[in-house]
Design brief:
By secondary structure, the protein is an alpha+beta fold. It starts with 9 loop residues before the first strand and ends in a 10-residue tail after the last strand. It holds the Pfam family SPOR. InterPro entries: SPOR-like_dom. This is SPOR domain-containing protein.
């Protein structure tokens, strides 16, 4: 990683009632991402939110 480059390897994923998945945001730490997922998930909606680490190939797979 070069100077001035920010690493954001943690993502929050949302899945709606129809099974569609969306990337909500990227975060530097798992704790930061989990805090966002928890706050969004507690709004009484049917959507699911979870945290994943982005793999080296750029997908949501954990390493």
């Amino acid at each position: 990683m070069s100077e001035g480059t920010v690493s954001l390897p943690w993502i929050v994923i949302r899945q709606d009632d129809n099974g569609n998945r969306y990337r909500v945001g990227r975060y530097a730490t798992r704790a930061e991402a989990q805090k966002t997922a928890d706050s969004l998930g507690g709004q009484g909606r049917e959507q699911l939110y979870w945290v994943e680490r982005i793999g080296q190939n750029g997908d949501g797979a954990q390493n």
